Amino acid sequence: MQATPNGPIGLFDSGVGGLTVARAVAQRLPHRQLLYFGDTAHLPYGDKSPEAIQSYSIAIADYLLAHGAVAIVVACNTASAVAWDALRAHVPAHIPIINVIDPVVAAVAQTYRTQSTPPNVGVIGTRGTIGSGIYPARISAAGVPGTVHALATPLLVPIIEEGLAHSEILRATLRHYLAQPDLQGINTLIPGCTHYPLLTDEIRAFFAERNTPITLIDAPSVVADAVARALEPDGSAPTATPHAPHRFFVSDYTPTFERIAQQFFGDVVTLELAH
Questions:
Q1: Is residue 1 part of a domain?
Q2: Per-residue pLDDT tens for 151-202?
């Protein structure tokens, strides 16, 4: 497999959640420019129909490719679940498309192979992701035994998008979800939405308060490693001049998106309204 040309990597999500993946990719491949598209006009994707998400995803992929992207990262679990096949059929075959589900499933399978105690897996995500059944199906197909305990947690994304990721409102809502019977007895948790790594401290605190050991899958890092393997399989970074500044496109301006992007990337971020 040859390395992908040293052009920009396109990533997209419905809002700020995919920035967790974008930051991890930027850290893993610091010589690459990122083109990030936040579809803020249509967030959250979790309550949209599969047909709508497929339409949004294809339009965004075309937009990113038109701006020079040489690969597409679907930095959204819901779009990965319901739109990846449509994207793969639409986007030229030489363009790599990386979703955020398959690398995480592979990480869970690796955990199963290396631990003496089989994983008892829980997944939290949007209604769209959980309703698709993709995590239980893929984890079973990867040879991991047992039942996958999946729970839709639809209020978390709107709270995060309102800029309340570390508020008492968020903590109370998260505690309500994590205490549900569906998740009792798990020892591995997949944050099945790219917004949820923003809640890592709160999730760990919940299980620590209950003296419950938990393996929390670091989805952004796992996906960033998969992106690196797909784009530069020989493991050697191109000897290139520093990349152009990252670009951040949005379908509608939101102050929360701008603020979180600046926090993640440590620079003054200029949002570009997509046309």
A1: no
A2: 999 999 999 998 899 999 999 999 999 999 999 999 999 999 999 999 999 9
Polymer length in residues for the chain? 275
33 token code pair: 């420019």
Cis before 213? omega within 30: no
Contact by Cβ (8 Å): 271, 251: no
- Is residue 2 situated within a structural domain? no
In this structure, the answer to whether residues 95 and 228 fall within a common structural domain is yes
CATH of the domain at 114: 3.40.50.1860
Q: Which two tokens stand for residue 206?
A: 């919940």
Instruction: Give the domain range for residue 200.
Output: 102-219
Which residues on neighbouring strands pair with residue 11, listed in sequence order?
36, 73
From the list 57, 70, 59, the residue with the least C-alpha distance to 18 is 57
Q: What is the pLDDT of residues 95-124, one digit of tens each?
A: 999 999 999 999 999 888 877 777 899 999
Q: What phi and psi values does residue 182 have, to the nearest 5 degrees?
A: -60, -25
CA angle (83, 165, 273) in 5-degree steps = 55
pLDDT at 93: 96
Active site residues: 76, 193
Please tell me what DSSP assigns to residue 188.
Answer: E
**Model pTM above 0.90:** yes
